[in-house]
Specification:
It is globular and about 60 Å long. The mean pLDDT is 95. The protein contains 13 helices and 23 strands. It is of the alpha+beta class and 422 residues long. It binds adenosine monophosphate (AMP) and glycine. Its cofactor is Mg(2+); Mn(2+). Keywords: ATP-binding, Ligase, Manganese, Metal-binding, Nucleotide-binding, Purine biosynthesis. Pathway: Purine metabolism; IMP biosynthesis via de novo pathway; N(1)-(5-phospho-D-ribosyl)glycinamide from 5-phospho-alpha-D-ribose 1-diphosphate: step 2/2.
Length: 422
Amino acid sequence: MGQKVLVIGSGAREHAIAHALQRGGSVEEVTVAPGNPGMELDGIRTTHIAESNHAALIDFMKDNGYDWAFVGPEVPLIDGLVDDFAAAGLKAFGPDKAAAQIEGSKDFAKQLMERHGIPTAKYATFDALDPAVAYVREHGAPIVVKADGLAAGKGVTVAMDVETAVAALDDIFIDHRFGNAGAKVVIEDFLEGQEFSLMSFVNGTEFWPMPISQDHKRAYDGDKGPNTGGMGAYSPVPQIPQSVVDEAIETIVRPTVKAMADEGTPFTGILYAGLIATADGPKVIEFNARFGDPETEVVLPKLTSDLAAGISAILDGETPEFTWDDDRVTLGVVLASDGYPTNVVKGAKIPTIPVDEDSHVYYAGVSKNEDGELVASSGRVLFVETSAPTIKDAQDKVYAVIDALPTDGMFYRHDIGFKALK
Ligand code: AMP
Ligand code: GLY
């Protein structure tokens, strides 16, 4: 009998996790809560339980004999879902509430890095407008202003001049744009260099790094427009040399895993390091306590080992095995509702998307209308991923599919992967 696994979350990331779990041999049944109806096209079950309803998720696990759960998004992790599962005698893969602070509070992450000499931008934390403005005026630009708590990737202003930074502080402290997330602000030095994402499976003391990837956070082509949750990704990132990845593993991932364990908040789950390759070596811009979205949708297709077997080994205190197809180049593009991220216009019809066996469509913000058709129901709608021998081939292939679709009511970037092709 195979394992029964519940995936918690509803986005394209959770679709990719569920799909990867299904591909391995050890899983008999995967259900996603709450999931979305696009996942059902892959034969993935969904159940209408909100990720915030811990008691109902626990009941589902017990009533249906599920073996363990995978928690996809940050909010239930930071809200202590893994702790509640443990208290109910259930296994869930992800950090507990204490360890999830590495994402939940930028101040927590910054202090941890400072205490342990982990390379990151210099910073200061403020809980009032006037001293924050004084710091910005004294320090000058470029400078980066971040709301302390969770703001879904939208709480960061990279200010190229002082007035932009001051306006961002006004937004946070006077207009309360991020609610509680803006009660504290982290102001940090601007780091120059290419970004990359380095994710690892972690068991509390040891870690297994995945291939690196690169996200595209700005809404429009050429990295223009507002920051979003991410508009596309690819893996590997050839302009980041392996020596820089190795350095990041030794100077960032290893000491962070050790620091969390030494300080009594051991991290189990997926540790996501958002890094910038500066002239001075790789430095941390953020940690996440979970898989990245959309990075997961280009990284997990390269996994050649059984995902569920690896994770259940970690949950059982055994040594997992993770192997990757390093020759495979993956690239994918987000289709988003018009107006995303600021004024999302829902309701676009989702076309049928013809893809070959080396490609996949991962669904995010979709629901069914009265006629049973899929329609867009939030900002990021779906992700079209493909693999090919080179980044250029993958890019050509994915845009050949997307450009031929009726995409009324949605938009996408036309240049995913451009930094690798310069
Ligand atoms: P975050 O939500 O912390 O990942 O920040 C969102 C985006 O802002 C990042 O992906 C970077 O593009 C940019 N960013 C954040 N911190 C810095 C920094 N210290 N220097 C330069 N860019 C940054
Ligand atoms: N793609 C960035 C994130 O998942 O936070």
